[in-house]
Design brief:
Organism (chains A, B, C, D, E, F, G): Limosilactobacillus mucosae LM1
Radius of gyration of chain A: 15 Å
GO molecular function (chains A, B, C, D, E, F, G): ATP binding; metal ion binding; protein folding chaperone; protein-folding chaperone binding; unfolded protein binding
Number of domains of chain A: 1
Oligomer: homoheptamer
Main location (chains A, B, C, D, E, F, G): cytoplasm
Order of helices and strands of chain A: EEEEEEEEEEE
Subunit structure (chains A, B, C, D, E, F, G): Heptamer of 7 subunits arranged in a ring. Interacts with the chaperonin GroEL.
Family (chains A, B, C, D, E, F, G): Belongs to the GroES chaperonin family.
CATH architecture of chain A: Roll
CATH class of chain A: Mainly Beta
């Protein structure tokens, strides 16, 4: 099991969508467009200066958008994951 | 549904206004001129160091000016949205 | 109406003064010389880390000096305004 | 009247002293040498994160040394002033 | 014994995994891919601004992923160790 | 009198020591080597975010080492002084 | 005596170890490898924003590893010392 530290979250990134124009597959490389993934594990959170610990506002199974330049790619049991800070999560997609 | 995280806000950006001079359409590319949009969803807010959570000072339906270099472009259900931090919202337009 | 967010202030900038030397109008482009304007609207303020909200120390109608490189230019109802952060207001001119 | 905002102070800068060597006037342009001025007006101060407002530690009439690269030059009623942040005041000269 | 200071942690880094393609050993040099190690010693922690000391959230024997560009390489009793800040630990691997 | 502001300290810098090799005087320009001086005046201190004022930990007459790139050179009554921030004082030499 | 200020510590650095390969002495210049020294004097500490003073977590006589790019080299009574901030001390070596 991967247990992320601090305000980190482990994600299973989704395949980037591809668009086809007349059968030609185009890579989606728009600048600043976040990528989607599913939350696999959530860290215990970060500390505020008053001593309060703030857990990330997402939970296992959440489908999220995250900043595509964020995080560390990790390989675990033959599968690839991404570990990102909570601040790099943009939105939950229901 | 897109549920923005932290102090983020989801916006539906408006078409940039165009100006015509003698029938010629001119792109509006003034430096530092904010762009307008409508608030579609509002995050729960950010934490102050005393543990207090501060929600963004806008609500769904608000028409806002935002810093044009801010935010992440997002595509959801075939529509484009912009997710920006509250600090990049400049003003509400009534 | 334009309702500035956070510690922002909406200003109606004044025409930069021009100086003439022998009838020739010279643009005033002194480095770091602030520009003047009139306060049109004031945001609700920013939060301190103790949770206190601090409103900008100016009010509608105040004549102010502001840092000329600050702010976002905004067009509203055919008039141009400037939205600046309180920290970029230098002084009130009575 | 010029009423400086925040922790700013309005100064009337003094003429930079000149040195003569054999009758030749030399501009004083030593790097990092502060310049002197007289305090004309003092802002209300800045906020600490505990909500306390801290006024600048100088008063009208004080003769001060200030960092020569600091501040905004201002023209008011035909006279030139300098508006500087308290942090750029180096010392009071008695 | 090596006793790390502040929020530092002493790690025994593991050999980077190698992949073979047709018998050829390939160095694993993926950008931003964290490296693994075992926690050997843990510092007493860092201070929050409220005076509270926060110990690192790992303990001796934990198997961790860490940011590969972090830390100081140390040689002690003929063995190599890595000393990293807690913030550069990405996740615990069970 | 020079009364330093905030956490500043006025120093009378000492002559940099010179070394002679075979009678040739060599300027001492070692990188990052602090310089020595005597404390002439001490500011009232800086504010912590809890409102407490912290005075510099040196007193008049102290012989100190300071970071050689720090401070503002000041001329007062025909003598040269250096005004430095407390943080640039390295040690007291007894 | 050298009395370090704030969170500084005075160290007596040890000779960098040298390695010999076939009798040839090789300088040890590994990037980011900390250097060792003995603590000679410890400052009173730094202030947290709650007014608490935090002393460095080392004491006279401690054998420490420190970041090799840190600190100011000081000469005192004909001996060379290094003055470093506590944050640049990496570990205590027992």
């Amino acid at each position: 099991m991967l247990k992320p530290l601090g305000d980190r979250v482990v994600l299973k990134a989704e395949q980037a969508e591809e668009k086809t124009v007349g059968g030609i597959v185009l890579a989606n490389n728009a600048k600043d467009k976040p990528t989607t993934g599913t939350v696999v594990a959530v860290g215990e959170g970060r500390y505020l200066d008053n001593g309060q610990k703030v857990a990330p506002a997402v939970k296992e199974g959440d489908h999220v958008l995250f900043d595509k330049y964020a995080g560390n790619e990790v390989e675990y049991n033959g599968e690839k994951y991404l570990v990102v800070r909570e601040k790099d999560l943009v939105a939950i997609v229901d």
